[in-house]
Specification:
This protein is an all-alpha fold. It has a domain of about 190 residues. The chain is built from 28 helices and no strands.
Length: about 525
C-alpha cells in the first residue's frame, strides 16, 4: 500500500509543478498516473478539480483514444461527474473495473449519490453490470467484493427509480450475489422473473437461489429455463453441477449425458462431464481426456476452470507437495558442476512457483525457459535458487520442465530432452529424481504419443524404489507414488500399488500436503497390502 501512495505523491508533485508552469497536458498526464496508483486519494481529486477550473473543464486533456490509459479514462469519468454528467462518467468506471478488477475505481462519493440512479439509463446500466460480472466471476475475498459495492448501490438506486425493469433486476441480482448479498439477489431475481418471464430471468433466479443455499428452488428455476430453450446446453451443465454439489451425482451425470447426446462436442457439457466423472470415481483418465479436449478445442465459448478445480491441492497435479521425509538428498553425482548465471536464475524465478493449475499449464508456463541453455538448466538443477528445501525442490521442477522445450524438433523417443530427463530420473533417489519424473509426466499430458513410454518409465521407477519386493523404501517413496498417480495411461494394477504405497508411507511419516484434496479411497487387494507392509 505504501508504494502506490508514494508513486501517487510523486505524480501529484509533478502535476502541481506543471500547472504552475502552464503545462496543462503534462499536468493531466501526471494526474492520470496518480489516479491509476491511488484512485480514491482526496489530494488527487482536489488537484483534478483545480486543473478543470484552470482549463475550462479539462475534458480535452483526457481524450478517449484507442487503448487509452486507465488513469486517463477514470479521470475523464470524474470530470464528467463534476460537469453534471455522472451518467456519462459511470460507464467509464465500469470499463476501468473490467480492465483491472479488484481496484477501487468507483469508491468516490458521486457514484453512490441517489440522483445517479435516476439519471442513468437502466438498460445501459444493466448491460454494464452484466459485462462486469462476466469479467470478475465470483470473487471470494472480501477486498475484491468491497470494491464492487458502489456499483451495487447505483443499481439499488436505479431499481428504486425503475422497479419493473426486468433486465436491470436480473443483472443487479447477478452483482448482488457476487458481493455476498444472496437475499438481495433472490429478491431482485424473483421480481425480474415476474416482470418478464424468460430463460435468462430463470437462470438468474436459479443462480440466486443457489447462492442462498436454496438448492431445490434453484433446480426448479433452472429446469424452467430449459423449457424456455431446450437447446441451450449450458443450462444442462449448470443443472448437473448444482445436482453434483447437492450430492446427487447420478442425477447430475444423467443431465450431462442428455446434453452430450444433443451435441457431443459442446464445451460446457464436455468439461462438466469429465469433472463430474472424476468426482464420481476418482479416475485420472477423465482429467487426461479433459486436457486433450481443451488442447483440441482452444476456441471454446469461454474459459473453463474444471481441470484446474480437479487438480487443485492434489500432489503433483496441482503443484509440488511438501516432502514426506525430506528429498533434498545429495546422494548422486551432480547434474552439472557449472554455476548458473545471474540471468538464468532470474529467468527461472520468473516462472518457478510451487503450484500450477494442472500439468499442461505447468508445461506451457515453462516455455520461456527455452531462452536458457540446456547446460544452464542443468546448472540450475544442480544449484537451485531458494531459501529452503521446498523452494529448491520447486526450482528443480521448473528446470526440468525447461528441458522439455529444448530440441523439440527431435522425435520424442530419440530426443535429447527425453535422454536427459530419463538419466536424471534414474540417477538417484532425491529431489532431482522427482523433478525429472514430473517433467516426463507433464510431457505425457500434452503429447498422447508419449504416454505409453512415460507410463512404462514411471512404472519402472515405482517398482524399483517402492514396489512389493522392496523392503526398505527411500525417503521419496511417497512422492514417487504420488507421481505415479498423476501419470496418464498407467496400468490399473500399477496404480493400485502406487495408492497402497502412498497410504502406508503417509501413515508412517504424516507428510504435510499443501491444500491436500480429500481423495476418494480405492479398494486395494488384501494380498497386495500384505506385501507392501512387510
Amino acid at each position: 500500500m505504501e508504494e502506490p501512495r508514494r508513486s501517487a505523491d510523486r505524480d501529484l508533485e509533478q502535476a502541481r509543478a506543471a500547472i504552475e508552469r502552464g503545462e496543462m497536458s503534462h499536468a493531466a498526464d501526471h494526474l492520470a498516473g496518480a489516479i491509476a496508483h491511488a484512485p480514491t486519494l482526496p489530494e488527487t481529486h482536489e488537484l483534478l478539480s483545480h486543473l478543470a477550473a484552470r482549463s475550462g473543464g479539462a475534458l480535452e486533456l483526457f481524450p478517449l483514444e484507442h487503448n487509452a490509459f486507465v488513469g486517463t479514462v477514470v479521470a475523464r469519468a470524474h470530470l464528467l461527474a463534476a460537469a453534471g454528467r455522472p451518467e456519462d462518467g459511470l460507464p467509464l468506471l465500469f470499463a476501468a473495473s473490467g480492465h483491472t478488477p479488484g481496484v477501487n475505481w468507483a469508491g468516490v462519493p458521486w457514484v453512490t449519490e441517489p440522483s445517479l440512479g435516476v439519471k442513468v439509463e437502466p438498460g445501459l446500466l444493466a448491460r454494464n453490470v452484466m459485462q462486469l460480472c462476466t469479467v470478475i466471476g465470483d470473487p471470494d475475498a472480501e477486498a475484491a467484493r468491497s470494491v464492487l459495492r458502489p456499483y451495487l448501490t447505483v443499481v439499488r438506486h436505479a431499481i428504486a427509480a425503475h422497479p419493473e425493469h426486468a433486465l436491470l433486476l436480473g443483472a443487479g441480482s447477478a452483482l448482488a450475489r457476487r458481493v455476498g448479498e444472496p437475499e438481495t439477489a433472490v429478491d431482485w431475481a424473483q421480481r425480474g422473473a415476474r416482470a418478464r418471464p424468460s430463460k435468462l430471468a430463470e437462470i438468474w433466479l436459479g443462480y440466486a437461489y443457489r447462492s442462498a443455499g436454496r438448492i431445490g428452488e434453484a433446480l426448479a428455476a433452472l429446469r424452467r429455463a430449459v423449457t424456455h430453450d431446450p437447446e441451450d446446453l449450458s443450462v444442462y451443465a449448470d443443472i448437473a453441477a448444482t445436482l453434483a454439489d447437492a450430492g446427487r451425482m447420478e442425477d447430475a451425470l444423467s443431465w450431462v449425458e442428455r446434453a452430450l447426446a444433443k451435441d457431443p462436442s459442446f464445451d460446457c457439457a464436455v468439461h462438466t462431464a469429465h469433472r463430474l466423472r472424476f468426482r464420481a470415481d476418482g479416475k485420472l483418465a477423465h482429467l487426461v481426456d479433459l486436457a486433450d479436449f481443451a488442447a483440441d478445442n482452444p476456441d471454446d465459448t469461454h474459459e473453463h476452470t474444471d481441470l484446474a478445480e480437479c487438480c487443485a491441492g492434489t500432489p503433483w497435479l496441482g503443484g509440488v507437495p511438501e516432502a514426506a521425509r525430506g528429498t533434498d538428498d545429495p546422494r548422486r553425482r551432480a547434474p552439472s558442476t557449472e554455476q548458473p548465471s545471474t540471468a538464468s536464475v532470474e529467468r527461472l524465478l520468473r516462472v518457478a512457483r510451487p503450484a500450477w493449475p494442472h500439468p499442461p499449464a505447468a508445461y506451457d508456463a515453462a516455455l520461456g525457459l527455452v531462452l536458457v541453455t540446456g547446460e544452464q538448466l542443468l546448472a540450475l538443477l544442480a544449484h537451485p535458487p531458494g531459501d529452503d528445501e521446498y523452494a529448491r525442490r520447486a526450482a528443480r521442477v521448473w528446470a526440468c520442465l525447461g528441458l522439455l522445450h529444448h530440441d523439440t524438433d527431435e522425435p520424442w523417443m530419440v530426443s535429447t530432452r527425453r535422454r536427459r530427463l530419463v538419466e536424471l530420473a534414474v540417477g538417484g533417489t532425491d529431489a532431482v529424481t522427482e523433478a525429472a519424473m514430473f517433467a516426463l509426466i507433464a510431457y505425457a499430458w500434452v503429447d498422447p504419443a508419449a504416454r505409453t513410454d512415460v507410463a512404462g518409465l514411471i512404472t519402472g521407477r515405482l517398482m524399483n524404489l517402492a514396489g512389493p519386493a522392496r523392503r526398505n523404501r527411500p525417503p521419496i517413496a511417497w512422492s514417487i507414488a504420488q507421481l505415479a498417480l498423476a501419470t496418464p495411461d498407467l496400468r490399473e494394477e500399477t496404480r493400485e500399488i502406487a495408492e497402497a504405497v502412498a497410504q502406508t508411507e503417509e501413515a508412517r511419516s504424516r507428510p504435510r500436503i499443501p491444500r491436500q484434496r480429500t481423495r476418494k479411497p480405492k479398494r486395494v487387494r488384501r494380498q497386495l497390502l500384505r506385501w507392501l507392509t512387510r
